[in-house]
Write a structure and sequence with these properties.
745 residues, alpha+beta, Phosphorylase Kinase, domain 1, Transferase(Phosphotransferase), domain 1, Rossmann fold, 34 helices, 15 strands, 12% strand, globular
Length: 745
Amino acid sequence: MIGKTISHYKILEKLGGGGMGLVYKAEDTKLRRTVALKFLPPELTRDPEAKQRFIQEAQSASSLDHPNICTIHEIDETEDGQMFICMACYEGETLNEKIKRGSLKLEDVLNIIIQVAEGLAKAHSKGIVHRDIKPANIFITEDRKVKILDFGLAKLAGQKRITRFGTAVGTATYMSPEQARGEEVDQRTDIWSLGVVLYEMITGQLPFKGENWEAVLYSIFNEEPQQPLRNIYSDVPESLQQIVQKMLKKEIQERYKDMETLITDLKSINLKSDSFTSPRVVGEKPSSSIAILPFMDMSPEKDQAYFCDGIAEELINSLTRIKGLRVVAQTPAFSFKEKNIDIRDIGRKLNVKILLKGSVQKAGKRLRITAQLVNVTDGYYLWSEKFDRDMEDIFTIQDEISLAIVENLKVNLLGGEKAKLMKHYTEDLEAHNLYMWGRFFWNKRTEEGLNKAIEYFRKTIDKDPNYALAYAGLADSYITLCDYNYVPPKDVYPKAKEAVLKALDIDSTLAEVHTSLAMIKFRQWDCKGAEKEFKRAFALSPNYANAHHWYALFLMYMGRSDEAIEEIKQAQKLDPLSLIINRNVAWVFYFARRYDKAVEALKKTLELDPNFILTNAFLGKVYLHMSMYEEALREIQKEKDIIGRFDPLVETWRGISYECLGRRGEAKQVLDSLLEQAKKTYVPPILLANLYFALGEKDEGFNCLNKGYEECDSTILEIKADPVFDSVRSDPRFITLLKKMGLEK
């Protein structure tokens, strides 16, 4: 492109680019002036109607004629139909670049933000909303004049679906709630985005953050800014904090009604301290953050998937034990497996600065492993190494990779941490491989997969009876079999407990084992013991997502709703793409009787995976408590169709839906079907109790609850807080049962 002449513009150099196109510096050969040419991606203008809408929008923007809006000279096309915009070319830098350098005085912050607001006020007066205000679209010239870039492009991008919340347009971290939902927007959306920019300029961090776009949008919808301004810097004027809070109100009617009112308030701020400077963003964003991507299988037979995933998982487990190093959980990192996505995009979505990627090639007993550390910012390698070794050297290779990561991230290992990093849980290569097969099948969560996992973990233990993680894997498999109603609790809990205690006897420093033991203790009515084990797990590994997840469920069952919500949010932040955690966010809200939040979380989970197990069924149960009976039955029937087999939980709620709709005959048919099925397979007694209570048959319901208690049915833990038992909560039999379970004093 450099040196070419397009129309009457000679391309001089590339200035930059992004998702909205590439920008070049060019000479206007007719008028002898320097201009900037922005070439739009073909997909933005391929549709003739979209193209025409954009031209009309750009015509409106070009007529604004305001000192704080970038001047558009013309729109044209190349001979092959690629559209470009000719704009004024300025010397200076974007606000994004300025923020990265840090040290912004508060007076400079206000000067910049007021100029942006004045430019937007002009656009709004002409009925034009920018829709994509962010630091990258704000240019500051050498004489400190602000220019707003890219008017009209956001609307053009709106012709394609770029998020899962409707046809939302813009950059996720700067989107208003209504924009993220794909709803109609007005000038108040630009006010929100400008509020995010203002917060970022002052604090050096974003008010709504997450390790990927789903987590960011959740934060925008549900959370307040990370910290109030004055909690970070006490010398921020109270009036400025109030302005930012008003700009970031989630309800659109609670924000400033227009830019003019906002400008008036901004200009009225009395700066008490000229010494205030915002922090360097580079310093605020942790440099010690990494995601380990699953290694690629380069073997001719493509039969090393378990081995590739196992190496990455072992590295994750080792590195999470290092303080000062944030390691992305396995679920979000592995979501990019076998996807052709730019490495820098992956890093941005996972909110890390460094990625480790690699490959495995196995031939006979020889192994070639390639590992590379990549800087997300520029895509350059920080470190790269090939290991041509025998299979027996795999542990040494993992140690070398771990140490290289720590060294290149400049992480200081504290006392004992190097030993943790280099620790091997087995020295037997075959046992190690069998263990990785076990985890491979355990992650599938199917009955067949869990039984295969048990088989492999047993083989692992046969090879190395002192392999603690293998016993932990065995316990997890037994627990999960029960959780999914594949087997009765009495058949597996003793085996799970035996395996956990053996693991603890071998190595008591594994957070995974203490978390599993906590769940077993709770299911055997030892509430105090369970909480003690959770606390021990956090002390060993504070960023273990599953510990926060299961502890949230424990707190939920105990009726400690506020604590449960905080814990499940923490689990979600650590593992934001985990479907089970996202679904159980809703479950926690449901138990807290915050049904609207539960519905919101369930719909978000369905956006991630429309067929994720029990999500539609849970949505149906929530609808039942919102008296939306037709909607409830529809969602429960949808779940039944997705599963395609008998599921006692789905059948129970289907029967309750019929009863709520006055269709008692059909509800009774469902009950008869469940009782018949219970003769052949396991049906948790609590489910039968649910349906009996809905039908008004309390004696039968309590008989089922008592049977569930005797069998240590895990789902009976729900009775203390589940709204479904509100109708019998005052019954003396119910109170007695709670006391027997340790759920009531």
